[in-house]
Amino acid sequence: MANLMQSGESILCINNGFFSHRMAEMALRVGADVHELHVGVHEAADPERVRKAIEETRPKVLTMVQGETSNTVFNHSLEEITKIAKSYGCLVVVDAVCTLSTMPLKMDEWKVDVVITGGQKGLSSIPGVSLLAFSDEAWAAAKNRIKPPAQWCFDIQLAENFWHKDGYHYTAPVSGIMALHEALKLVCDETLENRFARHLRCSKALQSGIEGMGLDLFIPNESRLNSVIGINIPEGLTAKQICRHISEMYRVEIAGSFGQPIVRIGQMGEQCREHNLFRTLHAFGSTMRDLGIKVDQPNGMAEMESYLQKTPRPLYQVA
Question: Which of 216, 227, 239 is nearest to 287 (CA)?
């Protein structure tokens, strides 16, 4: 935002939830003319609605989140939406914090201009060091701006001078960079194709187990994010109760949400493994029973195991 947007320039932010709205907030704080396309809580962004919004607002930049973790929606039409945006001359910015390396994101082929990710989610590294990738078009737009970004730390030209020309910008977070390097090495060793298959297989197995217990998933299957699963909270309970109980009694950490009546289970990176699924699902089912909710825990465990048995493992997978 700091590098692409200048005061008064138009930006269209596809708003699926908390993190996609956060992009709009960032744009607002750098002085952009911000427009938001609000998408229903249970829905992925519709390409034709996006086209209409682009025609109405004529933005310089379009932003969207590939996987909106706040409500566990997957914007599965990213490729089509990007093609539409590019046909109108927009730069396309994609938040891929939980999806980079957990599902396909073909930046060059799909003509995405900026991809943002964090170290701690899909890449399974540590928080504090993030990756940003710019297309040639986005890089040129940032370098040809009239005024430099107001934020010193976010100026990509100063960063380029630091990383590629031995100039000074800031003190490098060496331990974080080493952690990120190791995480990327693990991705390369596994290969993206096998990593995608592992995440999909584990997520579908967990979904089968949750539904096998008799609980409901928050998002319809066609728009459901694989790397974070949202589960409707049974009547009479709160997310805080569930998260506290499963943590204190079973030493398993899951999350609440950002305003939605759900709890969320993430499976990303190195912790997205079969043995973690069994421990998590057992702990979750036990928590429901402890808190007075009738669930069929044995059937849920059996459904998850059945899915894993009938779906082949990726060729490369650490047990």
Answer: 239
